[in-house]
């Protein structure tokens, strides 16, 4: 079966070439959660187009997708590297690799300490030193500030991982905006410094790879499932102020339009109820066509950011992520 633009992924569909529709047995639970989430979101006021400083600060203090501050674990260590980039590092007793983690939040929200529990669990179970980047956020720091910080952190790891963590096995990945920044970082390393073999794999969760908007982004509409057509458009405007859709097709902004040759193996994950569905489907095909192995997991019924919530599909996806990262690049 060939995946085409705008195709709807449905229960029972068989995907080929390493692309798999997963978790159909959890579809009822997942869709019920989506319905409950949307109903709750409908009772809240819509976010302002450009939040004022007070509102933005309040939203940033909360866990992504929730109304409470994230939990900071004592195992996390705050550091400053690469001449001023802040990171949060988790180092287990045994380290077999280093995972450069780039958080989500639409380039406007999120933080390096927003997922301590998940990142520490991943560090212990996959035997990875996890380095999460506190990159600068829009609208105060629009493009290219965030990507610059991620690039600097990646270059620092290339130069210092062996001395700091005892390994040169580097991995990169993130969620949503963090997945976008992961691909942008790999492309910058290749194009600016000729670095193509330092990072051995990429793990990309429900990323945005076309900031001019793929068909699924444009057609998703106003459903309040964490992200929708309007919220995506607003975040693009905050991240890249003064640009139009045509300008946002620049490969420096939208990696779907870049030459993807020389990138490492990747695992790409997205849910069928995510406005960014097409982004992952298209990127996986282009990544594969450029010559690198790709695993594409399409999670039945899952909305954008589903791994933030206590669902069966979340537990399964985190297990699959751990398995991929613990073995990739060996």
**CATH H-level name... which superfamily?**
Alpha/Beta hydrolase fold, catalytic domain
Total strands: the figure is 9
The largest sheet is: 9 strands, mixed
Head-to-tail CA distance between termini: 31 Å
- Give the spatial strand order of the biggest sheet: 1-9-8-7-6-4-5-3-2
SS element count, helices: 9
Number of individual domains: 1
Proper CATH architecture: 3-Layer(aba) Sandwich
Helix content, binned percent? 25-40%
Oligomerization? single chain
The parts where pLDDT drops under 50 for at least 5 residues are 1-7, 9-16
Proportion of β residues? 15-25%
Overall mean pLDDT: 92
SSE string, helices as H and strands as E: EHHEEEHEHEHEHHEHEH
Classification by helices and strands: alpha/beta
């Amino acid at each position: 079966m060939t995946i085409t633009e705008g195709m709807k992924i449905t229960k029972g569909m068989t995907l080929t070439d390493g692309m798999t529709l997963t978790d159909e047995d959890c579809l009822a639970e997942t869709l019920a959660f989506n319905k409950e989430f949307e109903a709750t979101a409908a009772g809240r006021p819509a976010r302002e187009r450009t939040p004022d400083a007070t509102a933005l600060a309040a939203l940033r203090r909360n866990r992504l997708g929730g109304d409470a501050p994230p939990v900071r674990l004592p195992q996390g260590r705050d550091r400053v590297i690469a001449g001023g980039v802040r990171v949060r590092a988790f180092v287990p007793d045994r380290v077999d690799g280093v995972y450069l983690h780039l958080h989500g939040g639409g380039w406007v929200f999120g933080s390096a300490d927003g997922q301590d529990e998940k990142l520490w669990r991943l560090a212990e179970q996959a035997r990875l030193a996890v380095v999460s980047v506190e990159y600068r956020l829009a609208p105060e720091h629009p493009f290219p500030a965030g990507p610059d910080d991620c690039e600097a952190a990646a270059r620092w790891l290339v130069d210092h991982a062996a001395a700091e963590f005892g390994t040169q096995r580097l991995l990169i990945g993130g969620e949503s905006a963090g997945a976008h920044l992961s691909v942008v970082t790999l492309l910058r390393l290749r194009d600016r410094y000729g670095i193509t073999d330092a990072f051995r794999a990429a793990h990309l969760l429900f990323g945005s790879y076309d900031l001019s908007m793929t068909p699924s982004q444009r057609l998703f509409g106003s459903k309040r499932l964490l992200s929708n057509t309007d919220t995506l458009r607003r975040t693009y405007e905050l991240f890249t102020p003064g640009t139009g859709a045509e300008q946002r097709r620049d490969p420096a902004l939208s990696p779907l339009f870049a030459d993807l040759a020389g990138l490492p193996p990747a695992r790409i994950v997205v849910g069928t109820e995510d406005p960014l569905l097409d982004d992952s489907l298209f990127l996986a095909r282009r990544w594969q066509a450029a010559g690198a192995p790709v695993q594409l997991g399409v999670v039945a019924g899952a909305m954008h950011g589903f791994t933030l919530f206590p669902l069966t599909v979340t537990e399964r996806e985190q297990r699959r992520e751990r398995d991929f990262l613990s073995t990739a690049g060996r």
